[in-house]
Design brief:
Elements: H1 4-12, E1 36-40, E2 55-60, E3 70-78, E4 81-84, E5 96-97, E6 107-109, E7 113-114, E8 121-122, E9 127-133, E10 141-147, E11 155-162, E12 165-173, E13 178-183, E14 192-198, E15 203-204, H2 205-208, E16 217-218, E17 221-229
Antiparallel strand pairs: 1-2, 2-3, 3-4, 5-17, 6-9, 7-8, 8-17, 9-14, 10-13, 10-17, 11-12, 11-14, 15-16
Length: 232
Amino acid sequence: SHENLMSTVAEELLLDSVEQYGVSVFDVKKDNTEPRRYFRHNLFGSHEADYLPTMVEYTVQSENNSPESFIYTGKAYTPDGMYVTTPYQCEIGKPIQFNDIQALQYFISGVPIYIEHSKTIWLQEKEVRMRFAFDHVDDSLTCHISLDPFIPGDQQRFIVTWQGTELYRGEVVSGMTEINFIVPNYCIADGVLELNFHCPDGMSKLELGLGNETEALLSLPVHQILFTKDIT
C-alpha cells in the first residue's frame, strides 16, 4: 500500500519511532495479509475546484491487481465529509440514479467515467461487471436501462450476460433512450445478481474526433438502472 511509503522513507532516514508511520516495505513478509486500500477519483473539472474531487475507497483482496480484486467499501470522501453506504444494495422498483458518486458502488470491474453534475456515467470498457443486492427476490425481474440519446459512433452493439448465458443482445443507436430485458429468477442467488455488460464497439476520443486520448473507450451513456418484477 502507499501507506508503507512514509515508514519506508523514515527507516531509510534512520528516524526514531518508524512504526508510527506504518510498516516499512522492508518488513513486509511474503505471506503478509495486511489489507491494502485504493482511492479512486477522476480529474474532470478538478481544476475549477478548491478541493480534490470526491474519492471512493476500495480494498484490494489479492496481489494480482485484477479489477475483480478491488472491492468497494461503501466509503466516499467528499468536501462535505465522509459518507458510508452498504455496497451493492438495490430495491425493486427504485431506480439507481447515476447523479452522484455513490452509484459507482455497483461496479465490480470496468469502473466507468463519472462526470459530476452530469447525471450520467459513461461505460468506458469493453466488458463491465456490476453487482446488485436485493433484500428478497422470488420472481424474475425486468431490467430497465435508461440512456442518453447520443451514442458514440451513432450505433454500438450491447450484450448482457449472466455466467456466460446471454440475457440481451442488440444494437443501440443514437436516439434510443431505454433498453429492457428479462432477468430470470435463477440468476439471483441469495438476493445477489451479477451481470456482465459487453460493449465491443467502444470508441476512443481520438476516433470520435473529441481529443487525442486513445486508451479510454466510450461506450454507452447511462442515466439510471431500474429493476421491476416481471409481469409477462
